[in-house]
Amino acid sequence: MHISSAFDSGNIVVTDASDPEAVRLEIRRDSQSDFYQWFHFRVTGARGTALVLNIANAAGAAYPKGWEDYRAVASYDRRDWFRVPTGYADGTLTIRHTPDTDCVYYAYFAPYSMERHAELVARIAGHEGVRLEVAGSTLDGQDIDLLTFGAPQGDRRICWFVARQHPGETMAEWWMEGFLDRLVDGADPVARAVRNRAVLHVVPNMNPDGSRRGHLRTNAAGANLNREWAEPTAERSPEVLHVRARMLETGCDFALDVHGDEGLPYNFLAGMMGIPSLTERQTALYDAFSQALLRASPDFQTEHGYPASPPGKGNLTMCSNWVAEQFGCPAATLEMPFKDTADAPDDRRGWSPARCRRFGAAALDALHAVLDDLR
């Protein structure tokens, strides 16, 4: 048996693999950071073996409560990801699984590789009316891809969508895949109407370095990008610096920042409500988008989520808060679960890439419903 993670988004440290029924592992910390929780590794040569994989440092992870009622995902072909028995006790996360083949991958959530990102961007950029630009470079020299749909003219609304500021939240880019594939569907009347009435700027992956390195929450410098929006720098957070600069050039009438939440088994919206300059108009538009998304997707709900920040106490280092304060527009953070959804559980897959894609596609219905009111 062999355990490895020396590949795109891989993360695991093997401390003892001498006994397949008592393997000891640890999750590697993000570079220059104390954050960790994302894991992704391969086990080979263990066909038919009852594996017991113990992640011994789980208690020190960024969100240890996220391990409660959590099940890891596994895949033989890196396409079909299914949940496997997982337990958390005495600070150790234990995965129990007997693989059917000599190649099995385990991960915190279904990975979204940089290769798949490249394929997504190339596929979408090949459609008529789509422009691709490199907003800037990361600290590791990777491109920050920015896709733009439509050109400013008349009263077209300017909308921004960004995802995966936290690289381990791979559900965010699975969501983006569904959103973008529907947006370029020439036979879809909602997508066509949105493209005709708005300019959309989309960053499918804000954190390529953290994605490739197997980080949970930070970039190559150990910066949490969703705490860098007030004063980003080229040395610490060039990803935010470059995207924010383009946003200031284009303006913004609506923004959505797509994330994943370790603890809550729900899809929900958050952000913006505590900013100093919050207006009734912003709140009304935020609520209208939320209600439209509720109608568009039964996977969305409004009962569970984060408590709103007190008036005037919103953290302006966060993307949705900074955008709402800067442009006076509605801006929200969309959260999805690492776990299954409590409202509509799927015993085999839990919250999954397929459901993320469907949810991303449904967001176009919600955007379409509020476009006319954004100005």
Number of strands: 17
Along the chain, the helix and strand elements come as EEEEEEEEEEHEEEHHEHHEEHHEH
Structural category:
alpha+beta
Content of β-strand: 15-25%
CATH topology name of the largest domain: Aminopeptidase
**Main sheet makeup:** 7 strands, mixed
Radius of gyration: 20 Å
CATH superfamily assignment of the largest domain? Zn peptidases
Write up what this structure looks like.
By secondary structure, the protein is an alpha+beta fold. The chain has 2 domains: 2-107, Immunoglobulin-like; 114-373, 3-Layer(aba) Sandwich (Aminopeptidase), CATH 3.40.630.10. It is 26% helix and 23% strand. A 7-stranded mixed beta sheet has the order 11-12-14-13-15-17-16, with helices on both faces. The protein has a 5-stranded antiparallel beta sheet with strand order 1-4-10-6-7, with no helix packed on it. The mean pLDDT is 97.
Supply the key terms.
8 helices; single chain; five-stranded antiparallel beta sheet; 2 domains; seven-stranded mixed beta sheet; 17 strands; Immunoglobulin-like; 375 residues; Aminopeptidase; alpha+beta
Quick description:
This protein has two domains: 2-107, Sandwich (Immunoglobulin-like), CATH 2.60.40; 114-373, 3-Layer(aba) Sandwich (Aminopeptidase). It has helices at 114-125, 171-183, 189-197, 208-213, 238-250, 280-296, 319-327, 353-370; strands at residues 2-4, 13-16, 23-26, 40-44, 51-55, 73-75, 82-83, 86-89, 92-97, 103-107, 130-137, 143-149, 157-163, 198-203, 254-261, 268-270, 331-337.
